[in-house]
Specification:
Layout: E1 20-23, H1 31-36, E2 42-47, E3 50-55, H2 56-62, E4 72-76, E5 79-83, H3 99-111, H4 113-121, H5 128-135, H6 167-180, H7 183-186, H8 203-208, H9 215-225
Antiparallel strand pairs: 1-2, 2-3, 3-5, 4-5
Length: 226
């Protein structure tokens, strides 16, 4: 009510934007099953009033106008679930990408990071501005004030600092020192995280590395999930 959003959110009513989850269990304390729930305990997840993932039969019941082919089946820790990601404003390029395709492509990209870094380090025979012009509508990093590209992103610094030293020359030396560290040598292949905690054998090892969590919380989460 304070934000004047009550017409859209705040209660489960027709025409409102409901975000909700349904968890297995109908008896006992209402909060404890929610706290202890794993991903395979969720029987339904709705976002903005649209069912997005849940029990196969339940998803079919709450999405009667959606064809079975539009709902993709998946397994979460051996539990059958249906996934529905269609959206009227979705990019046409993404509509044909399945969850497994997206996961495989991300894993391939993370695995080849060292090769990408090595290619980025190779000297280019053409100027950066020429490559930008040929690339069309593509994002590029422009390092201003160090190498003159003919494009001013902000007012130029004075040619010399108060002590008379060349600012550009100092920046060039800094850039050379940074290049000598060979960033590509420090880039390693990465493994994509599992989609769910319940299927991630490395989750608690990664959790133990988090310095912002106390030992009591880490131990409590491990005991709760295992």
């Amino acid at each position: 009510k304070m934000l004047a959003w009550f017409a859209a959110v705040g209660s489960l009513e027709a025409a409102k934007r409901a975000d909700l989850i349904c968890v297995q269990g109908t008896t006992g304390d209402a909060y404890l099953p929610l706290v202890r729930a794993k991903e395979n305990d969720l029987t339904l997840v709705m976002i903005n009033g649209v069912a997005r993932v849940g029990d196969v039969a339940l998803m079919a019941a709450v999405l009667p106008s959606v064809s079975a082919t539009a709902r993709k089946n998946l397994s979460i820790a051996g539990t059958a679930r249906a996934l529905y990601l269609a959206h009227p404003n979705a990019d046409p390029l993404s509509t044909e990408v399945s969850l497994s395709m997206a996961r495989d492509e991300l894993q391939r990209a993370l695995k080849t990071l060292p090769a990408v870094a090595r290619r980025a380090k190779r000297p280019q025979s053409r100027s950066a501005i020429a490559r930008m012009l040929d690339a069309g509508n593509a994002w590029r990093l422009a390092i201003d004030e160090i190498v003159d590209t003919g494009v001013d992103l902000r007012p130029n610094l004075d040619a010399k600092s108060d002590n008379g030293k060349s600012i550009k020359a100092s920046a060039m030396r800094l850039g050379a020192s940074a290049a000598a560290l060979s960033p590509s040598a420090s880039v390693t292949s990465l493994k994509i995280d599992a989609l769910t905690v319940v299927e991630d054998a490395d989750y608690f090892a990664a959790l133990d590395m988090q310095r912002n969590l106390t030992a009591e919380i880490k131990l409590g989460l491990r005991q709760m999930w295992t």
